Amino acid sequence: MSRAVTIVEVGPRDGLQNEKAILEPAVRADLVRRLEAAGARRIEAVSFVHPKYVPQMAGAEEVMAALPHEAGCSRIGLVLNGKGYDRALGTAVDEVNVAMSATDGFGLKNQGLSVDQQVQMLADIIAGRANAAGSPGATPSLSATLSCVWGCPFDGEVGVDQVADLVGRIAELGVAEIALADTIGAGDPWAVTRKVEAARKAAPEAVLRLHFHDTRNTGLANAYAGVEAGVTVLDASVGGIGGCPFAPGATGNIATEDLVYMLERAGFSTGYDLDALIGIARWIGEKIGRPAPSALSRAGGWPK
């Protein structure tokens, strides 16, 4: 049980985007720095979306400007389309994560694009990225996240073959890391195993990442199933804050500190300082005006 599991911290983006409180860019940058001090090495710092739709993410450029380069740390920017990607290129993000959907229903609500149109959008971004590869400055690495893999608030159940087909199409475009997201927390551990196995067959060379929400109290069980299936990269949000403003009823992500506790107790290595994470969860709860919902922010670690 000594293998390492990478936890990508998504609190500054997916965590804050669904909170009523709107935090200033300086506070969000402070959150990133605190999380990196606690051991986060990959962190979803910003989202390049229009502030009209997600005001909590306004000022992405200001957040990145307040974060000088930190050796060994990778800051991720989420984008929904080519315009967002162009904005990301104007900052110092190390990675760009392209948000997509496994279903037409969610894609049309979230981005105004069907699944096929999203694949074309991704292809256009990759083509532009290839054309810019020779220009000055480093081109950030690219990954893709598929929303609603285990259920869609508009289209209902999502089939294994539906997911596998889309994962294969994304991998064929050359995307090296593909995240499977349970946007509304509809999954169960057995469904996680089935879809991870299907995705791996469809894209054997790609790194699979998993992103779970705890809407129906299955988040940690699903993370366990993913790790047992061989996945070693998981998303989590400090304090368990967050959700999706475009998915009715979608509540918080699995909490980073709860996931770290479970994995470290089992003997896995995460590189995080658990006590520091608990302190950050309580701090961000104060900033958003409500206690963080994570279990460890209430109970603390064990043994004391």
Features:
two-stranded parallel ribbon, globular, 8 strands, alpha/beta, 12 helices, 15% strand
Provide the fold topology:
Layout: E1 6-9, H1 11-15, H2 25-37, E2 42-47, H3 60-65, E3 74-79, H4 82-89, E4 95-101, H5 104-110, H6 115-131, E5 141-147, H7 160-172, E6 177-182, H8 189-202, E7 207-212, H9 219-228, E8 233-236, H10 256-265, H11 274-288, H12 296-299
Short summary of the structure?
With 304 residues, this protein is α/β, with parallel strands linked by helices. The protein has helices at 11-15, 25-37, 60-65, 82-89, 104-110, 115-131, 160-172, 189-202, 219-228, 256-265, 274-288, 296-299; strands at residues 6-9, 42-47, 74-79, 95-101, 141-147, 177-182, 207-212, 233-236. The chain is built from 12 helices and 8 strands.
Structure characterization notes:
With 304 residues, the protein is α/β, with parallel strands linked by helices. 40% of the residues lie in helices and 15% in strands. It contains 12 helices and 8 strands. It has helices at residues 11-15, 25-37, 60-65, 82-89, 104-110, 115-131, 160-172, 189-202, 219-228, 256-265, 274-288, 296-299, and strands spanning 6-9, 42-47, 74-79, 95-101, 141-147, 177-182, 207-212, 233-236. The strands form 2 sheets. It has a 6-stranded parallel β-sheet with strand order 2-3-4-5-6-7. It has a two-stranded parallel ribbon with strand order 1-8. Helix 7 links the parallel strand 5 and strand 6 (177-182). Helix 2 packs antiparallel against helix 11 (274-288), helix 7 (160-172) packs parallel to helix 8 (189-202) and helix 10 (256-265) runs antiparallel to helix 11 (274-288).
